[in-house]
Amino acid sequence: YDKDKAVQLLEQAGWTEVGAEGFRIKDGQTLSFELISSTGNVQTEAALSIVKEQWKEIGVDARVSYYEWSVLCDKYLDKATFEAYMLGWSLGVDPDCYLFFHSEAGVKDGVLMGFNDVEYQNDRVDELLAQGRTTLDQEARKAIYQEIQQILNDELPYIFMYTQNLTVAMHKKFEGVVMSPLGPIYPEYWYITGK
Fold first, then answer.
1. Minimal CA–CA distance to 66: which of 82, 89, 55?
2. Could you tell me if 120 and 101 are in contact, meaning their C-beta atoms sit under 8 angstroms apart?
3. CA distances (Å), 172 to each of 179, 188, 194, in order?
4. How far is CA 94 from the centre of its chain?
5. In this structure, are residues 64 and 94 in contact, taking their beta carbons and an 8 Å threshold?
6. Which of 13, 53, 59, 173 is the most buried (most CB within 10 A)?
7. Does pTM top 0.70 for this prediction?
8. SS3 of 49, please?
9. Average pLDDT over residues 24-38
C-alpha cells in the first residue's frame, strides 16, 4: 500500500485531471470499474468497504456489486466477464496451483476449464506447473513453486490482500486427533475419553 506511488502511476498513465466528484478523468472518461463479489460474507463486505474508500482516495471510482453465488459464477466468473472481483481461495498442503494459473485452466470456447477465470497466461509458469506435477523430489518441487510464486508476485494476476490466521483448539477429552498444517484431520480416528 503506497498511496503516493499509486497517484504517481495514475498520473504517468495520463489520469491527471480530477473531476468535481473527485474521480480522475482522461479523454472525457471517468476512471471507474465494477468490483464484484458474492453476497453474505461479512468479512468480504468489510474488506471491500475499505478497498472502495482507498480507491476513492486516489481518484478511482470502484463500484462494488454483490451477487448470489450461482449468479456470480454463471454470469461472471465462469465466463470471465468481469472487470475485477474479490473472493478467497486456498490450496491444500501441496502448493500445486495449476487450476488457478495454468493457461489451460482458463476459458476455452466459453467454458471455464479450471479456476483461471482471470485468464492468466505465462509460458514459464505453464512449464513450471507441469514440472511441479511430475517431479517427486520435494526439494526440486520447492524450488519450482518458489519460482512460480516469484513470477506471480511480479506479474500480479491477483492482488493477494490477506491470509487468514486460523487457530484450532481441541478439548483435552478428545484422543487420537491427528493435526496437520490444515488443522485436525482423520476424524474417524478420534474418540472421547471418559476423563
1. 82
2. yes
3. 14, 17, 11
4. 17
5. no
6. 59
7. yes
8. helix
9. 97
